[in-house]
């Protein structure tokens, strides 16, 4: 297999792959023969379907499958031979022109950048530190406490208190006229948390 690697961009590469037609056709024939032994078709006993009928029915899908497999194998082998670290899946397209008896494909893909670590002996490192105060810890603990609190039902005749969660229906009005978005039913909020207009 001939391999030609081109650099298209900083990280983008193109490999031109060529595969012999007879190798592909041989694999297609082999798979169709295996398929013919098990395929079921009306009017024929299992394993007795004529080869030309199997090829007519399944030839295209088997050929497509073989092409995918062979091109994938060829690309993996070519990338390995060229010692390329491929990033992601290649975009593979068949070339319009190819040598006689062969199929040619272009595979365009990206490679991982080469990282070289320089001399760190003279490097300066700025160490970032953060001071955690008691008030910051208290604030975080309070947030966590509020996130995990539970509520119990009060008696129906008991008045709501600050910190209670209430469920209300409301309608907001400006100068006695309702305004858009100022109405809700079964709306929950915490009393005294400043979640609602006064």
Strand content bin: 25-35%
Number of helices: 3
- Which residues form runs of ≥5 with pLDDT under 50? none
N-C termini distance: 79 Å
According to DSSP, the number of beta strands is 6
Give the topology string: H per helix, E per strand.
EEHHEEHEE
Largest sheet: 4 strands, antiparallel
> Looking at CATH, which topology of the largest domain would you report?
Alpha-Beta Plaits
Shape: elongated
Question: What is the name of the CATH class of the largest domain?
Answer: Alpha Beta
Count structural domains.
2
Structural class: alpha+beta
- Strand order in the largest sheet: 1-2-4-3
Our Rg estimate from Cα atoms comes to 36 Å
CATH homologous superfamily assignment of the largest domain: Trigger factor ribosome-binding domain
Mean pLDDT: 87
State the helicity in percent bands: 25-40%
Structural description of this entry:
By secondary structure, the chain is of the alpha+beta class. The chain folds into two domains: 3-111, Alpha-Beta Plaits, CATH 3.30.70; 152-198, no CATH class. The protein contains three helices and six strands. A hairpin with a 2-residue loop joins strand 5 and strand 6. The mean pLDDT is 87.
């Amino acid at each position: 297999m001939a391999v030609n690697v081109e650099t298209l961009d900083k990280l983008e590469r193109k490999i031109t792959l060529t595969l012999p037609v007879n190798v592909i056709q041989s694999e297609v024939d082999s798979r169709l023969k295996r398929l013919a032994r098990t395929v079921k078709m009306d009017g024929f006993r299992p394993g007795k379907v004529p080869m030309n009928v199997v090829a007519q029915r399944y030839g295209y899908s088997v050929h497509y499958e073989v092409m995918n497999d062979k091109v994938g194998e060829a690309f993996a082998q070519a990338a390995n031979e060229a010692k390329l670290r491929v990033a992601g899946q290649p975009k593979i397209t068949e070339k319009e022109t190819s040598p006689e008896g062969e199929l040619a494909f272009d595979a365009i893909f990206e490679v991982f950048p080469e990282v070289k670590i320089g001399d760190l002996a003279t490097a300066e490192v700025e160490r970032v530190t953060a001071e955690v105060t008691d008030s910051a810890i208290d604030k975080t603990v309070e947030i966590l406490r509020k996130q995990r609190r539970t509520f119990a039902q009060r008696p129906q005749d008991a008045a709501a208190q600050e910190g209670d969660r209430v469920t209300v229906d409301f309608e907001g009005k400006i100068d006695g006229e309702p305004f858009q978005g100022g109405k809700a039913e079964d709306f929950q909020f915490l009393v005294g948390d400043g979640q609602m207009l006064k």
